[in-house]
Write a structure and sequence with these properties.
By secondary structure, this protein is mostly helical. It has four helices and two strands; from the N terminus they run H-E-E-H-H-H. The protein is 49% helix and 4% strand. The longest helix has 39 residues.
Length: 162
């Protein structure tokens, strides 16, 4: 057990042990070439598949403003303050602008819901205080309802007996 723990503690980044847990780990370490599974494509930071384009070309492939906003997207863009009027919105906009506007609208909607929840809590507290002043409670309502059911059951039993 101690030998296995000792061998795990001696592991360095980029090396894996090839020996049994009891054997000396220094004699049988080999460097790891790549931890990437074989058969998957590698992509460079330029965005093109590795090896398909020379590195020195300097071309960056970006998606131009190819997103045509829907009416809902246009309303979101107006509500978040990206544009002042519907006429100002171009026919094609970058997808990043739509994503940013949607995120901002999502945050605004969450703040509105938080505010409405707090207002509803205060309304419930106020109505509960008014009900307490009138000596109304769930217990009294429940007792009155059960008494009514008992009366109805007694009347039904009398009608059945006749």
């Amino acid at each position: 057990m101690l030998a296995a723990v000792r061998s795990l503690l001696r592991l360095r980044s980029g090396c894996i042990p090839r020996c049994a847990p009891g054997a000396p780990p220094e004699t049988s370490r080999r460097p790891v070439a790549s931890l990437r599974p074989r058969g998957l494509p590698q992509y460079s930071s330029g965005g093109a598949p590795g090896g398909s384009e020379p590195q020195g070309s300097g071309r960056v492939h970006r998606v131009p403003a190819e997103h045509k906003p829907s009416q809902f997207d246009k309303k979101i863009l107006l509500w978040t303050g990206r544009f002042k009027a519907m006429e100002e919105i171009p026919p094609r906009i970058p997808p990043e602008m739509i994503d940013a506007a949607r995120n901002k609208a999502r945050v605004k909607a969450c703040y509105i819901m938080i505010g409405l929840t707090i207002i509803a809590c205060f309304a419930v507290i106020a109505s509960a205080k008014r009900a307490a002043e009138r000596h109304e409670s769930l217990t009294s309502w429940n007792l009155a309802k059960k008494a009514k059911w008992r009366e109805e059951a007694a009347l039904a039993a009398q009608a059945k007996a006749k």
